[in-house]
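Inverse folding, one chain.
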């Protein structure tokens, strides 16, 4: 059996993700009893994806990410000014269901940085610079989370959500 090259894997990475998502959907629909045991594999699988991304980045360039003020400024402006303004503008279109609104806030205002690293790498962007500033982005996301929840959901909608599920979702 021939092992594909790294370049071939990267070129076809989207197809691997789509195939995995389709397999997961099929398995979930066909054998819902497996959801609990298979869910335990989720975090290790995500860790492997992160490892694959980090392993391809030359760590000698990480400090450059903090020196690149254009990159840092663009990330801060996009993530913490422009995207929240866009979400606020589109907020009236979001269904009034608290769980859906929470999902919109989490997905659009607190995106998982591992995916941004993967897509930046695939686009041949400055992955090392992004990895260098990810701690800053994560810290700002955690600091701003209470403000985002209060501004977009209000205290009434937060009370309607089960706290144990909310904490599980926020682990990302």
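Residues assigned per position:
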């Amino acid at each position: 059996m021939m092992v594909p090259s790294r370049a071939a894997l990267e070129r076809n990475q989207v197809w691997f993700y789509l195939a995995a998502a389709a397999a997961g959907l099929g398995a979930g629909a066909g054998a819902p009893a497996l959801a609990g045991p298979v869910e335990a594999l989720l975090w290790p699988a995500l860790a492997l994806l992160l490892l694959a991304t980090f392993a391809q980045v030359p760590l000698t360039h990480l400090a450059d990410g903090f020196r690149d003020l254009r990159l840092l400024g663009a990330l801060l402006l996009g993530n913490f000014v422009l995207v929240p303004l866009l979400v606020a503008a589109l907020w009236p279109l979001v269904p009034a269901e608290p769980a859906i609104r929470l999902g919109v806030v989490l997905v659009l205002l607190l995106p998982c940085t591992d995916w941004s690293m993967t897509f930046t790498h695939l686009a041949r962007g400055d992955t090392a610079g992004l990895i260098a500033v990810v701690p800053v982005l994560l810290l700002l996301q955690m600091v701003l989370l209470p403000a985002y929840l209060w501004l977009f959901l209000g205290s009434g909608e937060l009370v309607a959500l089960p706290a144990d599920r909310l904490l599980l979702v926020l682990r990302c």
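The CA atoms of residues 29 and 54 lie 33 Å apart. The two ends are 37 Å apart (CA to CA).
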